[in-house]
Amino acid sequence: MVNGFTSGDIPDYQMSAWLMAVVKSGMTKPEIADLTEVMLRSGQVLSFASLPAKKVDKHSTGGVGDKTSLILSPIVAAGGLYVPMISGRGLGHTGGTLDKLEAIPGFNVNVTTEHFGRILKECGCAMIGQTAEIVPADKKMYALRDVTGTVESPALICASVMSKKLAEGIDALVLDVKTGSGAFMKKLEDAVYLAELMVETGVRMGKRTAALITDMDQPLGRAVGNATEVLECIEILRGDRHPMSEDLRSLSIELSAWMFYLGEKTATIDAGRSLAEEMLTSGKALGKFRDMARCQGGGDISVVDRPNRLPAATHTVDFKAATSGYITSVRCEDVGLASLILGGGRSKKEDVIDHAVGLFLHKKVGDPVQQGEAIATILYNSDARLPEAMQMLRDAYSIGPAAPAVKRPLIHRIIEGD
Ligand code: URA
User: Fold this and answer.
1) Smallest Cα–Cα separation from 310: which of 225, 244, 374, 222?
2) Is 418 a catalytic residue?
3) Looking at ligand 1, which residue's alpha carbon is closest to its atom 1?
4) Using CA positions, which residue lies closest to atom 6 of ligand 1?
């Protein structure tokens, strides 16, 4: 079925019917494993066996302000492992690593697999878009799923994600499966189910795999957008400690620690954490990020050291609290959509992203707030949809007389292979 569809022998309407049957009926685990394997083998499976250290990657199911890839790739490369990362673009309300990287003037994510290998060898990390040779079955199936309402199946998501990650020639994989109001899997049990499927698939294919179920009930860090998010990553890489970015920094360290552990660089997660901290505080991770921008850019890499050269919006306005109290909850998906409609994401595939627009957030859930105090600063170039974005933020943030009694953890659960 998959091979016939990829070669064009099986038409879209038959594949659509099969995809919908999977959405409705699910698949058994052996079926998911077979599907992943046949998709993986539909194209080139990379091998970087000649490189002298393990190859590890991380995949996130996506969220708002989720920018850990830009921080952990250079951390892990600086720590001595290789990170061959093939990433995606923004999907719905969630941002995409490729769109963020393209906010750096001249940064090129469209490179051949051969060039990918050269960058990896020279820099230790490379972050690119899917090439024509890698998992062509997924390229075609995903495009069809997108227009037939068949994205949501855990079986199809597992096969789609894992086939692409396994094609990177990695030894180990860390999965960051998000749960909460800004995640695709809003309920914890759905996130756990998907995580277990993906971990089992990775292990069955001989890769050390683990999943962290992490919180996406409010945006991660202080920035949402593209250039805004790159700026926040550079701040963390150069050692700035902003209170609103502590969750992002902690999660980046935690995911890096798991990458070091699964990549057999450290014997324990604790040792992985220490190594990640050292790579950040020593400036070595920032150096790797600079190297990668040079290898993949040829453009203005001075933005790494002078982030005020990143694309800047022409206007800013504060979204202010209507009453005093505490932030009790955030409808996180709406915060992502507010950035999207200002131009930070795509409503249609062909939309062009405005890298400069986005949000800087000033409050987390549980923080006290005074009437008239800024909850977020909106960066925009056109005011055509500004009132709509402002209304979305107004609806997204709830203020009450007391902070929530229970604070949601940053990491809900860990699912280890083996
Ligand atoms: N991202 C993917 O690459 N595939 C899916 O099926 C869903 C999200």
Assistant:
1) 225
2) no
3) 161
4) 157
